[in-house]
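Appendix B, record 7
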Amino acid sequence: MEAIVGLVIAVIVVVLMFVFVVKTVRIVPQARARNVERFGRYRKTLEPGMNFIIPFVDRVKPLIDLREQVVAFKGQPVITEDNLVVLIDTVLFFQVTDPRAADYEIVNYIQAIEQLTATMLRSVIGSMDLEQTLTSRDRINNMLRGVLDEASGKWGIRVTRVEIKAIDPPKSVVDAMEKQMRAEREKRAAILTAEGVRQSKILTAEGEKQSNILRAEGDKQSQILRAEGQSQAIGTVFQAVHHNDADPKVLAYQYLQTLPQLAQAEGNTFWVIPSEVTTALKTLSTAFGSDNAGQPAAPQAGPGGPGRPGQVTGAAPAALPADAAGQPSLTANGGTAGVPEAAGEEKAAEDEAVEERAVEERAHTRDELAQVEQEVAAVERQVAEAERFGPR
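Structure tokens (predicted):
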């Protein structure tokens, strides 16, 4: 019986010692802290590791996390300067730097930070309109962080960062903003389309300009070469006419060959014959008439010897019978009556015919020169037009 009592007493002593040890030793994890009160008064803060207290005298309070913490606050209704109610979600990053102040200076520091954040949001956003609120998040974050860090410093809390998570304007404002954004995008699309069309037209105009310049350059060279060819051809013909001393019959024949070409154009109902053609026809008829009739026979010396009137083999065309001209006719044996007068009239007729032919040839030559000059002037005009329409 005594052995059993001794065993129970030993067990009780062991249990009491175990409880004493458990109540005396406190192990605090890393980045944590615990405040100790002795008889209700703050005694000390337990550091991470093994700590000893007096059981049943010291009371250890709950753990305080010293790591950086993140707290998200739901939408806080805030009124902007232009009287629009927006909901703002914020995210707060803070860290406890003084466990004693965080435990004894404020009851619930998280709730206090939330209310302080809502108050500061209303103060900051109230001085901004909606447009500034949506585009000034960095400014709002910096202002909130400064105010919260200053206010929570005495609580042993350091606010490291404040971020605005979301800003929710009213539904009507969201619809208006979407319409504005759509109109702005349509405006930019129209501007880009207009710029593309403008650039396309500019490039097309540049291409047409280069094409027209090249085409005009080609036309200019073609007209210049054609005019130079015509000029050389006319010059060759002009030199051939003047160097070879062309007979009036040949020129008259060329005029006759030119006549059919005047009527070859389509739609011609009438055509004008130049005065040179009439002259050419007259020259040609005179030439062919002279060939058929022959030249007038010259008087031949008769038996009387040179210088003496003798027998004439044929009558001169200019000589007239005695009864028509009022002079005696020539006798068969070469009488002297009327012979000198007939010979003088024949010579005068021949001189007059030669002079008329010379006058006609000179007039014809002048006409030829005038026509050649007209053709040269036409070629010069073509060359001038080609140079004028060329690229400047």
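Remarks on this record: Strands lie at 25-28, 32-38, 41-46, 49-52, 58-60, 64-65, 68-79, 85-96, 157-168. The two ends are 139 Å apart (CA to CA).
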